[in-house]
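PROTEIN–LIGAND DATA SHEET

This sheet pairs a single protein chain with one bound small molecule, adenosine-5'-triphosphate, given as SMILES. Inputs appear in the order they were entered. The predicted three-dimensional arrangement of chain and ligand is reported afterwards as a token string under its own label.
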Amino acid sequence: MPELVAHGLSVAYGDLVALQPLDLAVRPGQLLAVSGPSGAGKSSLLWALGAALRPAGGSVSVGGAAVTDREHAASLGVVVVPQGNGLASSLTAAENIIVPQLAAGVPADDAARRTADALTLVGLEESGNHLIEELSGGQQQRVALARAFAARAEVLLADEPTSDLDAANRERMVAALRAEAERGAVVVMATHDPEAAAQTDGELHLDAGVATWVRPLV
Ligand SMILES: Nc1ncnc2c1ncn2[C@@H]1O[C@H](COP(=O)(O)OP(=O)(O)OP(=O)(O)O)[C@@H](O)[C@H]1O
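PREDICTION REPORTED AS:
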């Protein structure tokens, strides 16, 4: 599985610099927390790593290939789980998970199996047939993560994956993210939550766009 590397990566919105130039390397098997207060630049970093926004400067590569845009990043196996979950509200939980797999060419029976496994992993095996709009915010967040797990990402970028969850489900999600890393993925999680951050291999703290290592990746 490929390494995720950023060189001099920076993000700006007009005159506002949301992320100061940052160098970062995350190896397959590593789970990194990006912590920091609201507005620190965590989402901006994740979106830039996933090529979901154009950086003000610098570059991102996956397995040595320079990422050009979101479509290219997706083709390299880079999956972004946005904070707002990004699910289709008029589809069921299972449909939200299976449709992108079918679109990506996963055979139907494999996709169905992965969907069931992913729903079980997030504790929603009973909710596959529920419409997204019928689920709570925390359940929707778990479906969004299940969709990412079913996609078998090479690089998984999860924005605040535990923000709407109770303690038991937070533990379950952090364990599932850990399992993704153990499968060999690069996993980066933005979080406000010190208890979730403490369970990772490294913690990069952002404050007003400036990154400081709390615990460096080794
Ligand atoms: N589309 C945008 N246009 C202009 N400014 C933006 C935009 N998105 C973010 N910002 C600003 O960039 C800075 C960093 O925002 P970002 O969303 O990356 O922070 P964050 O750490 O993820 O915050 P939160 O924890 O609240 O999600 C903030 O000052 C924010 O107001």
